[in-house]
Amino acid sequence: MSDALSLPPVGGVVTQATIDAYAELSGDFNPLHVDPEAAAASEFGGTIAHGPIALQALFRTLTEGLGVEALPPGTQIAVTYRAPVRPGDVVTAHAAEPLARDGGELTFEAACVNQDATQVLSARVTLPG
Amino acid sequence: MSDALSLPPVGGVVTQATIDAYAELSGDFNPLHVDPEAAAASEFGGTIAHGPIALQALFRTLTEGLGVEALPPGTQIAVTYRAPVRPGDVVTAHAAEPLARDGGELTFEAACVNQDATQVLSARVTLPG
């Protein structure tokens, strides 16, 4: 892990196919995620992504930025979900320079935003030392 | 949302097919997740699941237990990753009775454990009022 951390934004489009594939692997087939007609009648007005999907860009920017294959055990991620992710949204994660470096621990503020610059989630990430 | 919350454990098996499908939808093809031979030579000794996969049981026990289709915007989840999830693991989420009910907010302690009763993650979840 380099001292001069630079975490380039990483993002991608979330499609209904992404959501349907996630439903298959997680077993969560709530109509709000997979049934466009039922979801259109809900308060959200259409399907939305499962919560873990909104995190995928954050995990990618952290692992790619840190040059690691996976976040190590002991990693803490405090997420606040702020807005739904909808099919067609391009979700990009941004991570700031580390806030604190305490005995080897690194703490970052991060966020995932959509193509309208709306935060879909904010997060504070602490990596163990 | 009922006053007498009861959040039955929800879980399922995570297979290499689950991990491969998640790699496709997230674009995260790190060998530690998708290349059993390369992963066998790593410190983990085999492939491990992406971080968001370990959360799927938690999301399901919360939504199924609360009788909602999705967690609402404003939901906060503070996760500590404690051990990797490996192909074949059965990951089950448990959520305790609410810790605090503050102006309609609900806070739960929760954890996902594997078939050996090892915590793969612990979490504190706060739902907005």
Question: How would you describe the overall organization of this protein?
Answer:
2 copies of one chain form a homodimer. With 129 residues, chain A is an alpha+beta fold. Chain A is 27% helix and 29% strand. Chain A contains 5 helices and 6 strands, in the order E-H-H-H-H-H-E-E-E-E-E. In chain A, strands 1, 2, 3, 4, 5 and 6 form a 6-stranded antiparallel beta sheet that branches. In chain A, a hairpin with a 2-residue loop joins strand 4 and strand 5. The radius of gyration of chain A is 16 Å and the shape is elongated. Chains A and B meet through helix 1, helix 2, helix 4, helix 5 and strand 2 of A and helix 1, helix 2, helix 4, helix 5 and strand 2 of B.
Summarize the structure.
Two copies of one chain form a homodimer. Chain A has five helices and six strands, in the order E-H-H-H-H-H-E-E-E-E-E.
SSE order and pairing:
Two copies of one chain form a homodimer.
Chain A: E1 10-13, H1 16-26, H2 31-34, H3 36-40, H4 51-54, H5 56-66, E2 76-81, E3 90-95, E4 100-102, E5 105-113, E6 119-127
Antiparallel strand pairs in A: 1-3, 2-6, 3-5, 4-5, 5-6
Keyphrases for this structure?
alpha+beta, homodimer, 29% strand, 27% helix, elongated, 129 residues
Mean pLDDT of chain A: 90
Number of separate helices of chain A: 5
Task: List low-pLDDT spans of chain A.
Answer: none
Largest sheet of chain A: 6 strands, antiparallel
| Shape type of chain A | elongated
Order of H and E elements of chain A: EHHHHHEEEEE
How would you classify the helix and strand content of chain A by structural class? Answer: alpha+beta
Q: How many E-type strands of chain A?
A: 6
Which strand-content bin applies to the residues of chain A? Answer: 25-35%
Tell me which protein chains meet in the greatest interface and how many residues each side has. Answer: A-B, 40 and 40 residues
Seen as an oligomer or otherwise, the chain set is homodimer
Kindly provide the radius of gyration of chain A, computed on alpha-carbon positions and rounded to a whole number of angstroms.
16 Å
> N- to C-terminal separation of chain A?
11 Å
Helix content percent band of chain A: 25-40%
